[in-house]
Amino acid sequence: MPTFEEIKKNKDIRAYISKADESLIALGFTEHSFAHVTRVAETSAYILRTLGFSDHDIELAQIAAYLHDIGNLVNRIEHSQSGAIMAFRLLDKMGMPAEDIATITTAIGNHDEGTGVPVNPISAALILADKSDVRRTRVRNRDFSTFDIHDRVNYSVEKSNLRISKDHKYITLTLIIDTKVSSVMDYFEIFLERMILCRKAAEKLNLSFKLSINNQSLI
Fold first, then answer.
1. What are the respective helix, strand and coil percentages of the chain, to the nearest 5?
2. What is the pTM of this model?
3. Ramachandran bin of 78, using left for φ above 0, alpha for ψ from -120 to 50, beta for the remaining angles
4. Which residues sit opposite 176 in a β-bridge?
5. pLDDT tens-place string over residues 79-123
6. Is the distance from CB of 198 to CB of 127 less than 8 angstroms?
7. Are the CB atoms for 32 and 80 separated by under 8 Å?
8. Which of 63, 71, 126, 213 is the most exposed, fewest CB within 10 Å of its CB?
9. Sequence-separated (6 or more) residues with CB below 8 Å from residue 175
10. Which among 126, 131, 129 is positioned nearest to 60, based on CA atoms?
């Protein structure tokens, strides 16, 4: 079975991630390249490790996280489904067992808020990790006067932290935002669907999802 480290070093996979992000650059999207997928992999591992899942499950979650956005190479629309198909072919070619491929492709195919459902713990961890990656460094546009709402919301985030409570009852996304750049309402305008999916993902892991913005509990 290919390991997460082998996946990260695979030249074909790196090419697909890079080219997928190039497509999003052309569309004016925020960063979806190696910084994003690496952070999502690390956060997915943190979630499952904290909750006591096996090393094998953590490895599968990291692989799913690293590959989750390659479908943007095909098109942004339904990128989770096309990415799952691409991942299937890549992992099958690398000799991964069918059961593990099934788990990973299911997670990738269900990570987007438009159609996604947290069908298993790997999928739930990926959703939470992906949707919590909100940060200033994801904004590529350097002309503040031309920022769209996604640029403003991401650029406004000065601090972002996703943590599970010590009693393993809650998972909280804590944001500190500059309200001179973006309002809290702006955040909800574009991220409400994502936060609802995060709540469902948390429930799959027997957690309650909470959102705190500027020290105010909002969910």
1. 60, 10, 30
2. 0.95
3. left
4. 159
5. 999 999 999 999 999 999 999 999 999 999 999 988 899 999 999
6. yes
7. no
8. 213
9. 134, 157, 159, 160, 161, 187, 211, 212, 213, 214
10. 126
